[in-house]
Amino acid sequence: MLFHSTRGGAAIPLADAIVTGLAPDGGLYVPEQFPAHNAADFDPQTNLASIGEQLIRPFFAADLLTDELSDICREALNFPVPLVRTRDQNLSIVELFHGPTAAFKDVGARFLAACLSRISGSDRPTVMVATSGDTGSAVAAACAERPGLRVVILYPRGGVSARQEHQLNCWGDNVLSLRVNGDFDACQAMVKAAFLDQQLRKACPLTSANSISAARLLPQMSYYAAASLRWHAEHGSKANFIVPTGNLGNALAGVWARRCGMPIGRIVLATNANTVIPRFLESGQWQPGDTVATLASAMDVGNPSNMERLRHLHPGHQDLVEQVSAFAVDDTTIEAVIKDSFHSLQMAVCPHTATALAAYKQLSGPSDAEHWIALATAHAAKFEGTVEPLIGQAVEVPPALAALLRRPTRQVDIEPSNGALREQLLNW
Ligand SMILES: *Cc1c(COP(=O)(O)O)cnc(C)c1O
After folding, report:
1. How confident is the model over 148-180, as pLDDT tens digits?
2. How many percent of the chain have pLDDT more than 70?
3. Is 241 helix (H, G, I), strand (E, B) or coil?
4. Ligand 1: which of 106, 134, 218, 401 to mutate, most ligand atoms within 8 Å of CB?
């Protein structure tokens, strides 16, 4: 299937959209159409990889990667994504944190790496990503196991947790992790400058692994499909979803999955104190602002780039507000919910997941006729500094994460200058 930019222009094959990342006109790649699946054609009991493959196969039609899709899905979607009932009978949780780096970013990062490793050698770009934590570690982990790939990660000194930093720096020679003596915006500015540096890109072809990547969005549709199909098979009704939201990549995948015919009811977005999305749905005015630092740091986004894809799909404001609704959740509430759900649901949740549980509480009168599925986007052990004091005990570290934390690390520091990054890349 062909993909084109949200801003128009010529359509290109999916594999090219994956390699290119951002369209040359600054827009984001979207599919020319969405397949119309029938839920009854899926086996809800089969694994995530099979459901994902069936769901996204039409996007890979006539593509360079079409014959590889089955293997890509099997390699990338190879960890459990359980749908767990809670003590509240109207609420279930999809645990998206059983991958190698304990956050849902593993799904997209592993799929992207599996795709890129199948692009032939000379066309295969180096992956570059600025990260505030979870994306960088997921991309590093996914690429580290594929020696043919190279990945450069820029993260802000002092801007990530100790465990996140360990996960960024514990890899082999094909992962270059740079600790930038600046903030996240400085990291992003360096990445942007590198992408605009044509001379550098000739010497070192680059692609982005940020959540604008089509190869991250498409596989994220599969856990919405798996959870909704299972719910539908067992109860005959559509489940509603609540999604912790920052750059809108995760939530957009849910909107796309519903558009493809998956039995999904309402989609509710939960943001932290970065309220640009709820304010937009309320007023119709798109007013991106400065990023506010919150406890749910992976959602600290002042200008969510995937909104451009959502608005492309639903250009009319009335149409858009019928597709999604949103709640903003402040840090005080995040803390209260982490505490409360530890007692009432007997679950330790990360600050991002807590925003979804807070949004659930704000829904106007959830009735027994409706079931809600909240996405748990990271394991609480990744944010132990916030969670443990609130619940008054240690959070057990999942085995995959514990294995990473035992690996040795090495540290490369860099000044926030485009020249310094260039030098690192050319001398690598
Ligand atoms: C990245 C991230 C989010 C936000 O996802 P978006 O796709 O940017 O909306 C939420 N929770 C966690 C744990 C994350 O790492």
Report:
1. 899 999 999 988 888 899 999 999 889 999 999
2. 99
3. strand
4. 134
